[in-house]
Amino acid sequence: MVALVSGLPLAVSSLVGLFISILQSATQIQEQSVSYCAKFLAVGSVVALCAPWFSTKLIEFYQTMIGSIVALGNMP
């Protein structure tokens, strides 16, 4: 579940970081705040856009876990 929910923001952060590092090396701008700001904006927008999907997956997971706990309590 952790890999499913965190995979997309992690992939976006990695791709933005790679793009920014290539851009910085090509232009010889070695400012670290450029990379942080770009990653922050990219990951923030991905999380905001995918929040309904993330919450649906987490709710399904929690319902499955609670159902499993209840089923274990009903065992003879």
Described by strand count, sense and barrel closure, the largest sheet is: none
Average pLDDT across residues? 90
**Content-based structural category:** mainly alpha
Unreliable residue runs: none
User: Number of helix segments?
Assistant: 2
Secondary structure tally: strands: 0
Shape: rod-shaped
Over all CA atoms, what is the radius of gyration? 19 Å
Content of β-strand: under 5%
- Name the helicity range: over 70%
Distance between the termini: 30 Å
Order of helices and strands: HH
Number of domains: 1
Report on the structure:
The protein is mostly helical and 76 residues long. The longest helix is centred in the C-terminal third of the chain and has 42 residues, at 32-73. The chain has one domain (2-73). It is rod-shaped. The protein starts with a helix and ends with a helix. The mean pLDDT is 90. The protein is built from two helices and no strands. It has helices at 2-27, 32-73.
